[in-house]
Write a structure and sequence with these properties.
The chain has helices spanning 7-23, 28-53, 57-103, 116-133, 139-159, 165-168, 188-198, 215-224, 228-243. It is mostly helical and 244 residues long.
Length: 244
């Protein structure tokens, strides 16, 4: 008979996993940063206890110097940590731009070239951007990268369309083997990466999710403007939703 999973163990494991996610990536500077924070907190507690129980001023001075040095070290490590995170963020962002520019139609072209090498290069840039993004440390840089990624996803959607099968390969058999006399088919691996990037990310939190007109706002719009036509349209839309 199988034992039921321990709820306490599951909770602790969940907390531990979240803590590990915050520490990632496991770079030396990132781990050192958290170690110094814990040491600084510990020293602050000790200093407070010593301050309450000791009457010797010299002890205060020494401990205060140690505390000051620790704060200075923490500031230095924080700045180094931020610079490392910023470098990874910039590179991740730049590779998204490079990926788009690789496939972007040039001149009078209306669609991307069906060139195997270009599609592979674009896919590699996207995966490189993803790899760099996993090394971003600061949460502010992570948030900015998420929005940058969403921006370039929309840009890709403007050029990646429902192309006919001949666009990808002149013949399905060419995906298996082809001679030098035919156009090289676009590699499936590049298609998987690029079309996967274009698809909507369910984990993305849309900032427009909670913005809708209230019934009162629609009524005021229909009566006073500035767009009575929009007000009438939305009013009819609300009626249809209630009927449905």
């Amino acid at each position: 008979m199988k034992k039921k999973p321990n709820k306490t163990y599951g909770f602790l494991r969940s907390v531990a996993n979240r803590a590990l996610e915050r520490v990632k990536p496991f770079s030396l500077i990132n781990i050192l940063f958290y170690v110094v924070i814990l040491a600084l907190v510990g020293m602050s507690v000790v200093f407070f206890i010593v301050f309450l129980n000791s009457t010797e001023g010299e002890g205060y001075t020494r401990f205060l110097i140690l505390l000051t040095v620790s704060v200075t070290l923490l500031t230095l490590i924080y700045n180094i940590r931020r610079h490392i995170s910023e470098d990874y963020y910039k590179e991740a962002k730049e590779h998204l731009k490079k990926a788009f520019e690789t496939l972007e139609p040039k001149g009078e072209e209306k669609i991307p070239k069906n060139d195997r090498f270009l599609w592979l290069t674009c896919a590699r840039f996207l995966k490189t951007s993803e790899r760099f993004s996993k090394r971003i440390i600061m949460s502010s840089h992570k948030d900015m990268y998420i929005e940058d990624r969403q921006y370039w996803r929309v840009k890709f959607m403007e050029i990646i369309r429902d192309f006919p099968s001949e666009y990808y390969a002149e013949d399905p058999e060419h995906l298996i083997m082809h001679s030098s006399g035919v156009r090289s088919p676009i590699a499936e691996s590049s298609l998987y990466v690029i079309y996967g990037f274009v698809r909507w990310d369910d984990k993305y939190i849309d900032p427009l999710n909670n913005y809708r007109f209230t019934d009162k706002e629609i009524m005021d719009m229909s009566i006073h403007g500035p767009s009575r036509g929009l007000g009438d349209l939305l009013s009819e839309h609300r009626k249809l939703k209630k009927q449905g």
